[in-house]
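## retry 2 of 3
previous attempt timed out at serialization; input unchanged, resubmitting
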Amino acid sequence: MNRNESLLISRLRFPMTLAVVAQHCMGAALIAWDTLGTKDIPGLVKTLISGCAVQVAVPVFFFISGFLFFQGVTKMNTESYFRKISRRWHSLIIPYILWSLLSIPLLALTMYGETLTGTSTMADLHDFWHGLSVKGVFWSYQESPYPFPNLFGWPLLYASPVLGPFWFVRDLIIASLLSPLVWWFVTKTKRWGLALLAAVYLLRIWPYTAVNSQILFFVFGAYWSLNGWGLTFQKASLRWLTYGTALLLLVVLVRLEGNATYWGFQLMPSFTILGTAAVMNLGSLSHRPSLTSLPPSLKGEEEPLQRERESDIGRWLSKSSFFVFALHMNFALPLGFFVTKAVFRGATGWAAATLQYLLTPLVIYAICLGVYAAMERLTPRFLNVLTGDRVKTR
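## retry succeeded, writing output
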């Protein structure tokens, strides 16, 4: 991995984390297609952003994680395996345990605050405390089938730990533990294995289990890393084809209202694959990372390697992204909604509703950054543990 690819990954962390925050800010998105008018603009904007476009964020993170995990791995033996896992112990497992435990009082405090505004009751808080279990905290506190089956009629399960967004970290830990199997599959199956997994993902052929099918993007990243393929397409024609197809799918998905309808649910995997490729290439526009190697069909003329430095604010936003990802759901999100509702109290009309929606994820992110900055100054060592050694300048 060259420096430009490292810089690309670092630059993507902030916008993709903001995308995750925006995904959780959707709320009700009402669209009357038969009588479409300005009244439907808030619903259209919510569906476009939270319901569709930002669905690529977690796949991008999985892809990057798989790409980085297998960097420099020429063989998978006991020594290389335990060296990789020991690093993930500090960067994933310890933060996963700590944040899962910390989220319990944070969520209880949030629920208590919501009793004051009428959005929760003391009975809800009582049920929360008495419904906790080790399995719920670390594996599947929320567990329910998806609203739609796959094309074959097979049901699919959604399950998240008590800290909802950390299903991603849970699955990432599982992928890391199974990395010898991933390495074997990638090295033995070559491109037909990649095509097979893509088909599995596109058709949502997945067992009824808590582990999400988006974990396959970790394997896709492993393919790119172990085959020495770069993160972006060198051919301009291929990049524009990716952008155009992803944009077309995005428009169709908005009309289908994303995962809220049967066909939108079936089409979403196609968009997340193309959208992930589009994000990787769009993220490189400012510095155009070079591809070290690609399959023959993807190769084009190589451009000179352009080395850049990341700004101080860029590095800070990048290293704080994991903290924001962990804190936003059970603490900053309800607080951010409370702030924007208070600011827009009494405001009516589609413009006010749209602006309130657009500002909410920014307010939530700002709250998380404020807490991060305070901890960086007051408790830097504890912050470093919580973020898996991501605070230190590397």
